[in-house]
């Protein structure tokens, strides 16, 4: 009789603990302020047009799959200083539009089911120069200890965001800009 009661108590205890643990795990928020965002807009036979930004702020809510990223446009670093100056002043108007923002959601995101790498659909809106466009891409998510590693590549065109490329340099900049993201997120405590 005592064994039966203990067995019943143990089942209830483990059930409650399982629910508590799953709630704690699913309410986790992960973030970084040092995410890497880069773009490549090079055309063969001309100076490479590419830059890196190592200060992207990113938040991921593990329970819902909600995802947000924000970066300062003038934090993109180019190999050529003059190219960086033209990028900020002439193309991106970074004084007037200092940030690029992505807000989206991973479809069917489940942090618990990620054992190695897992690919997810990521949908949301990207705002550049005050212009908001819907975006869909695939992102690879993996867990490494208590960190989440997230990477993706997607493409945009300058025209989509009202970025005018002068005729004098039009042939030196790609029509399609490839954006590469690599973020290492830690749990926000």
- Overall shape: it is elongated
Evaluate the radius of gyration: 22 Å
- Give the DSSP E fraction (strand runs of 2 or more residues): over 45%
Largest sheet: 8 strands, antiparallel, barrel
Based on the structure given, which CATH architecture is correct?
Beta Barrel
How many domains make up the 3D coordinates? 1
User: Main sheet: which strands, in order across?
Assistant: 1-2-3-5-6-7-8-9
> How many individual helices?
2
| Class of secondary structure makeup | alpha+beta
Total strands: 9
Determine the CATH topology: Lipocalin
Helical percent range?
Answer: 10-25%
Element-level helix/strand string: HEEEEHEEEEE
Looking at how many chains there are and whether they match, the oligomeric state comes to single chain
CATH class: Mainly Beta
Instruction: List unreliable stretches of 5+ residues.
Output: 12-26
Average pLDDT level: 88
Summarize the entry for a quick read:
This protein is an alpha+beta fold.
How would you characterize the overall build of this protein?
This protein is of the alpha+beta class and 189 residues long. It has a single domain (28-187), classed as Beta Barrel (Lipocalin). It is 19% helix and 47% strand. It contains 2 helices and 9 strands; from the N terminus they run αββββαβββββ. The N and C termini lie far apart (45 Å).
């Amino acid at each position: 009789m005592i064994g039966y009661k203990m067995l019943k108590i143990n089942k209830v205890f483990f059930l409650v603990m399982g629910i508590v643990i799953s709630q704690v795990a699913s309410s986790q928020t992960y973030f970084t302020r040092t995410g890497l965002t880069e773009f490549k807009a090079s055309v063969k036979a001309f100076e490479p047009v590419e830059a890196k930004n190592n200060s992207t702020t990113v938040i991921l809510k593990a329970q819902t799959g909600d995802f947000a990223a924000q970066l300062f446009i003038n934090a993109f670093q180019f190999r050529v200083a003059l190219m960086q100056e033209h990028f900020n002043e002439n193309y991106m108007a970074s004084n007037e539009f200092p940030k690029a923002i992505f807000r989206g959601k991973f479809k069917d995101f489940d942090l618990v089911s990620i054992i190695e790498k897992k690919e997810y659909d990521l949908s949301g809106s990207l705002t550049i120069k005050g212009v908001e466009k819907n975006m869909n891409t695939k992102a690879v998510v993996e867990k490494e200890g208590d960190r989440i590693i997230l990477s993706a590549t997607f493409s945009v065109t300058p025209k989509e965001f009202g970025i005018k490329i002068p005729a004098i340099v039009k042939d030196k900049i790609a029509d399609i800009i490839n954006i590469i993201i690599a973020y290492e997120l830690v749990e926000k405590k």
